[in-house]
């Protein structure tokens, strides 16, 4: 994880998101299960980002030549990160919007 923090700007951004939103999850008036779901969704984003970075590193290790399969693998990894972010956003919105409307 140290290498990912040093070399991957997307990982640093997502780690910052976890660092900012986790304390917010703890102070929200929601159940412990909902708190776990919110934090787990952010951790899931980091896991998928690490897997994406692994795929990209392996492809770059093999060759820097442009190849359709290499491009496709990198695009799939990026799409997986985007979907993980979308899932996290949907979970946060689903749990937080009712709280905001009450206030």
Major beta-sheet overview: none
Estimate the helix proportion, in percent. over 70%
* Average pLDDT reading: 94
N-to-C order of helices and strands: HHHH
Structural Rg: 16 Å
Tell me the name of the CATH class of the domain at 32-103. Answer: Mainly Alpha
Ends apart, CA distance between termini: 39 Å
* Helical segment count: 4
Going by CATH, the architecture of the domain at 32-103 would be Orthogonal Bundle
**Coarse shape:** elongated
Low-pLDDT windows of residues: none
Strand count: 0
Strand content: under 5%
CATH topology descriptor of the domain at 32-103: Helix Hairpins
Kindly name the structural category.
mainly alpha
Q: Which SSEs are present, and which pair or pack?
A:
Blueprint: H1 2-7, H2 9-27, H3 32-62, H4 68-102
Q: Would you kindly provide a written description of the structure presented here, covering whatever features stand out?
A:
With 103 residues, this protein is an all-alpha fold. The chain has a domain at 32-103: Orthogonal Bundle (Helix Hairpins). The protein has 4 helices and no strands. It has helices at residues 2-7, 9-27, 32-62, 68-102. Helix 2 packs antiparallel against helix 3. The longest helix is centred in the last third of the chain and has 35 residues, at 68-102. The termini are far apart. The relative contact order is 0.13. The model has no long low-confidence stretch (mean pLDDT 94).
